[in-house]
Amino acid sequence: MEVQKEAQRIMTLSVWKMYHSRMQRGGLRLHRSLQLSLVMRSARELYLSAKVEALDLETPSTPTRCPPLSPEPMDTQEDEEEASPRAAETLARCSAHPARVGRKRRSSSLSNGVDAGLVPSKKARLEEKEEAEDASSEVPDRLLPPPAQAEGAFPNLARVLQRSFSGLLNRGPTAPPTAPPARDAKPVCRPADPVLSVLVRAVVAF
Amino acid sequence: MPSHRMPSEADIISTVEFNHTGELLATGDKGGRVVIFQREPESKNAPHSQGEYDVYSTFQSHEPEFDYLKSLEIEEKINKIKWLPQQNAAHSLLSTNDKTIKLWKITERDKRPEGYNLKDEEGKLKDLSTVTSLQVPVLKPMDLMVEVSPRRIFANGHTYHINSISVNSDCETYMSADDLRINLWHLAVTDRSFNIVDIKPANMEDLTEVITASEFHPHHCNLFVYSSSKGSLRLCDMRAAALCDKHSKLFEEPEDPSSRSFFSEIISSVSDVKFSHSGRYMLTRDYLTVKVWDLNMEARPIETYQVHDYLRSKLCSLYENDCIFDKFECAWNGSDSVIMTGAYNNFFRMFDRNSKRDVTLEASRESSKPRAVLKPRRVCIGGKRRRDDISVDSLDFAKKILHTAWHPAENIIAIAATNNLYIFQDKVNSDMH
């Protein structure tokens, strides 16, 4: 549980950092985005493997606890085996959903900042808004948690993100969920508009 | 050099570089300014006092720009400065921000012509009827004026953010590297450059590593090295092909599986790579270590030094406060026997490669009175704590020394501590313990 919680916390933090890095002066930094996505991926893997272990411990003779999902057509290699590995894999597929959907909409979260140059900025913002909505609505709909657990990862994640964005609304643009030092707060030269649009997006998304 | 204004983010020093003789020291800051210091000639009256560095010139190198197509602001922060070898009375340097490299020429004017025939002392045209004889204007001494002018602007060469520039030993070309590509420029040609490395994948979703630093070999004009976010170094030979995507040598240390964590990949990213003056070795810096590599051995570094291994158990907190992303630089001394790098709490570390001794020193106002001898510092992890030790938990992570430089020949080092520049001379080496 500890491991799961920690992994979840790191995932949330990474998402926040990625979001926040878009507003930095100088634009999205490719190296930073890559590093954040690597950490997020590691955290997700750890979370899922810890979850699988927890499931194994609870019910040794596992009937499959697969949530009754219908995977999207884009999720090609679905295993048909019945076992807790399947639960893990479907969970893995589900967890990939928000990111995958996001990627489907634009070429990649990484390239967004760069290739947004090909698309006028208003359209890029619209797409981001869509992605945020999709990510949040996708998550509770598609991922039905296994009955053994009161709450799955991603409803929690959505709630945490919601809290953090409410925090954004309440406290102002520089407040992160885990309160890193104020010097993370970003700069002065950028006009207020991106911040307002962020807040608008947050409200719409949740 | 303490700033006279209130310290602001624009004053944060972002790069430090000695020129090839060590006579000049250039610093760049977040506000796009370059400040050049010059070493005063040693005074004959006081032969024991070494020449000190005074401000020689200050100029605005880069301004903030806006990329309208991408709706992105381009920061004016100076990422790197590299001096060109001096070829005449003028000095030249390259300075770069995220997107544009500029060649600056620095010249001195200490004489001015006087005694014009047609103009008077103030420059007004004379009444011709008063001119009865011709004189030859003579050059008279004047107060030294340092003039800086931008001679070339190398723009639009990079889609991603420039992280390094390096002048070739041929003194005609230089390269600039961003996250995915490296370009070769001729110093006299601004409207085109040659792409010599391109690691951009066809599908950006497949991106797994980026270029973090690059440098030309000090003697072989066809060789250069670039480092990656995965901790590897690639040595490339420009004679082999026009596009050097295939490396000549790949330097990579296998990962120790026992030390794997969430953050293994981040901390293995190489933040700086420097050839030794001899050209035989390379020095790399990743988050926790500095490593010396022999060009003849690709399998692993020949030496590894722990900079601040006590941070290994604190990586999660360092991820939270973004410190884990800090990019520290490293430096060789003139004889390649000592290496130096910065750390937190305004500490910097030096490692003597021969004696294997190391020292931790602090750049602070208290310890930097003139002629003061720097006292070695110690970070205590647990157990016995000596009087002046600092505990890990009381380290100030806001005080980071990312940029350091070592004089090419003498024991003079320049340390950038946020918005202050410290220059230490002479006695530093004798304090190794």
Automatic annotation (TrEMBL), chain A:
Region (Disordered): 58-150
InterPro entries recorded: IER
Domain of life: Eukaryota
Pfam families to which the protein is assigned, alphabetical: IER
Family, per entry: Belongs to the IER family.
Name of this chain's protein: Immediate early response gene 2 protein
Natural source organism: Heterocephalus glaber (Naked mole rat)
UniProtKB/TrEMBL annotation, chain B:
GO molecular function: protein phosphatase regulator activity
Keywords, ordered alphabetically: Repeat, WD repeat
InterPro entries: PP2A_PR55 (IPR000009), PP2A_PR55_CS (IPR018067), WD40/YVTN_repeat-like_dom_sf (IPR015943), WD40_repeat_dom_sf (IPR036322), WD40_rpt (IPR001680)
GO cellular component: protein phosphatase type 2A complex
Database matches in Gene3D superfamilies: YVTN repeat-like/Quinoprotein amine dehydrogenase
PANTHER family hit by this protein: PROTEIN PHOSPHATASE PP2A REGULATORY SUBUNIT B
Similarity comment: family membership: Belongs to the phosphatase 2A regulatory subunit B family.
Protein name: Serine/threonine-protein phosphatase 2A 55 kDa regulatory subunit B
Upper lineage: Eukaryota, Metazoa, Chordata, Craniata, Vertebrata
Gene from which the chain derives: Ppp2r2c
